[in-house]
Amino acid sequence: MRLRFKPHMIVTLMVMLTMKAGFGQDPPDSLLKKLNTAANDSVRVRTILAIGESIESRSTEKSLVYYRQALELAQKTQNKWLILSSLVNMGIGYMESNHLDTAVAYFNLAMPVAVGLQDTNRIAVVYSNLGNAYRYKKDRIRSLENFQRAIDLLEKKNDSLRLPAVYQNVSIFLTENNDYRESIVYSNKAYLMASAQGDDYTACNALISMSDAWSDLGNPDKQFDMLQKALVLAKRTGDLEESGAIYNNLGFYFFTKKDFQNALQQYKISYQYADQMANHYHLCEACTRMAEIYQKLGKQDSALKYAKKAEDFAHEIGSRSDLKEIYLTRAEIEKSLGHTNEAYGFLSKALYLGDSLYTTAVSEKIAEMEARYESEKKQQQITALEKDRQISLLSLKQKAIFNWLMAGLALTLLVVSFLIYLNLRRSRMLARQKEKIQQQRIVELEKDHELLVVNSLLKGQEEERGRLARDLHDGLGGLLSGVKFSMHHMKDNLIVTSENMVVFERSLDLIDTSIAELRRIAHNMMPEGLVSYGLDEALKQYCSSINTNGMLRVTYQSVGLSNRMADAVEITAYRIIQELLNNVLKHAAATEATVQVIRDEGRLNIVVEDNGRGFDMKSLDEKKGAGWVNIRARVDYLKGQLELNSEPGKGTQVNIEFNI
How far apart (Å, rounded) are the C-alpha atoms in residues 516 and 511? Predict the structure, then answer.
């Protein structure tokens, strides 16, 4: 097993050429001091971004807090360069924390800013980050499209400073898709160009990628040559992750050569680097390999020690594939120590975790252990018979033959019984799986029926809202206007006392108030802006009306809403945002809220975030308010996905995504 790099780490270096992320969770004191003495807001934004970048590799969530502060301050200064850097860093942070849809949304917000600045380099950076985000989303086509756009832009400018990192991203993408020879082509491009620029970090990365590809192509000599060159560069840069990966891969190289002593030495060094970084993924890998090597060298106590360590790390990081390999190694160790029952126990655990539980390879492994166990029993019986050889050589031979026959019969029966057991177990599992599929199908049909009912209900509600709005505005509104006109006419033709005139004027004011309230109710039931101009204009008007009241400051942002969408989509999206903002006004005690609506290639993403009191997520299911019921029903109506994040005292964020 070889350790590979996360390509977005390389793109991060393209964005922040001024520094490299540290390994500590706390920001460096020098940056905190610089922040406190910053001369202006622009310097403060750059310092906040640098603080977030310094802790991103170890505390992504904390770095996102800094990036968000930087973005808010950059928007106040209206410095588009700083806004762009903040948006890109937000996207990278969310990509690090595996919130991929949110990451894509921030990169899409960054793109028009970069285009507006006419900065080809930064446009390429955004494309490259989008390529990585889509790669993690397993969207191979969009990933490759964005990588190619970045390459096209940088190659036109012959930008040898940034091209190597993008080439390296493409190389890793190709290796993951088993296109090893093409991967080597791009890694070699990255290596040559980075070497010419003195970029040892990217050059080292490229060599590691080439070594992986040559290994996958079955050329260990090339693999070793690349790793030796990479080691020189890693020592020069002092990067812990690169050095750890190289020694890990060297260990794998010597292990395949059965040079266990050399392999053990490399894995020990890799372990030291992983320990310095507190990287439990790499520590698990190193401990697993060292346990296996010690077992092969006959040092069972050391093998057991590292196998236990590896198991603890695997449980911590939740790696079932590593656990399977660890359990298999542990079974061999326990067997070598004469602990037959424990060996069978760990073998059973490995079989349970394995994806190919019923394959021929697994059956052969079990048969091999059974044969060895029976062979040991037979050898003990033969030894006992040989001690009695003086009694009767003929009797000894007869007993030996009988024992051999019985052992063979027992072994045959054991293998047959085990195969029958596997077959029966597999049949029962298939039957249970079929039953589960049927139950799931029933549940899906029930959900489809419920969704149809909800769809009809929502459609009926909107139609009734529209009808009532028209009747109120055109019918009752017209009548009130007529009454007002008649009373004005009467005022000019009647002679009334001064006291009655005050009452008359108050009646006219009440009619004006009634007409205004009637128009407000009709607008809320079916906004004219939504019907006439679309979702974007209706939301601008709605957010502006909230800001006018002074109860809450709402910031509205939209991307890609210039073209109209289906009426059902626009009405549903409007009602969802209206309900979410109503919840903020009623319950959140917030002073600020942000509404983002992004439309991108068949997707509609809605984000509503406030700085209010927040709430405990565990208590959400206990609440049965009509607001959340309506929101979930409308999300289900468009078959969307809803993600809610909130903590007491830390505000609330709602992320909704539809396919349109």
Answer: 9
Placement of tokens 């360590």 in the chain = 309
The whole-chain average pLDDT of the chain stands at: 80
pLDDT digits (tens, 9 = 90+) for 513-556: 666 555 556 555 557 668 778 899 999 988 998 998 888 999 99
**Taking a C-beta distance cutoff of 8 angstroms, is the pair 100, 94 a contact?**
yes
Average pLDDT over residues 623-627: 63
**Parallel/antiparallel/unpaired status of strands 603-610 and 553-559:** unpaired
> Which stretch, 278-287, 392-401, 515-524, has highest mean pLDDT?
278-287
Q: For the segment 308-324, what is each residue's pLDDT rounded down to a tens digit?
A: 998 888 888 777 777 88
Three-state helix/strand/coil letters over 526-578: CCHHHHHCCHHHHHHHHHHHHHHHCCCEEEEEEECCCCCCCHHHHHHHHHHHH
Distance CA 66, CA 402 (A): 79
Angle between helices 240-256 and 260-277 (to 10 degrees): 160
Helix 360-387 to helix 393-470 angle (10° resolution) is 160
Query: Which residues 6+ apart lie within 8 Å of 326 measured at CB?
Result: 288, 291, 307, 310, 311, 314
pLDDT at 525: 56
75 vs 85: CA distance, rounded Å: 11
**Between 223 and 427, where is the model more confident?**
223
Task: Estimate the share of the chain in helix, then strand, then coil, as percent rounded to the nearest 5.
Answer: 75, 5, 20
Q: Which residues, other chains included, contact 584 with Cβ-Cβ below 8 Å and sequence gap of 6+?
A: 552, 590, 593, 608, 610, 612, 652
Helix 360-387, helix 340-353: angle, nearest 10: 170
- 70 vs 57: CA distance, rounded Å: 18
655 closest CA partner among 631, 623, 629, 625: 631
User: Would you state the pLDDT for residue 455?
Assistant: 56
d(CA 102, CA 88): 12
Which of 122, 44, 121, 57 has its CA nearest to residue 92?
57
User: Which residue bears the tokens 């996360």?
Assistant: 6
In single-letter form, the type of residue at position 1 comes to M
The label of the residue with tokens 């990067």 reads 239
Residue 609 in tokens: 């975030």
122: left (phi over 0), alpha (psi -120 to 50) or beta: alpha
This model's pTM is above 0.90: no
Q: Residue 560: name the closest of 595, 597, 509 by CA.
A: 597
CA angle 4, 9, 15 (to 5 degrees): 155
Amino acid letter, residue 351: L
Torsion region of 639: left, alpha or beta (phi above 0 gives left; psi -120 to 50 gives alpha): left
- Give 356's pLDDT tier (boundaries 50, 70, 90): very low
Residue 145: which H helix or E strand, with range? helix 140-156
Angle at CA of residue 479, ends 474 and 481, nearest 5°: 90
Q: How far apart are CA 335 and CA 331, in angstroms?
A: 6
The per-residue pLDDT for 242 is 86
Residues 67-105: tens digit of each pLDDT: 999 899 999 999 999 999 999 999 998 887 778 899 999
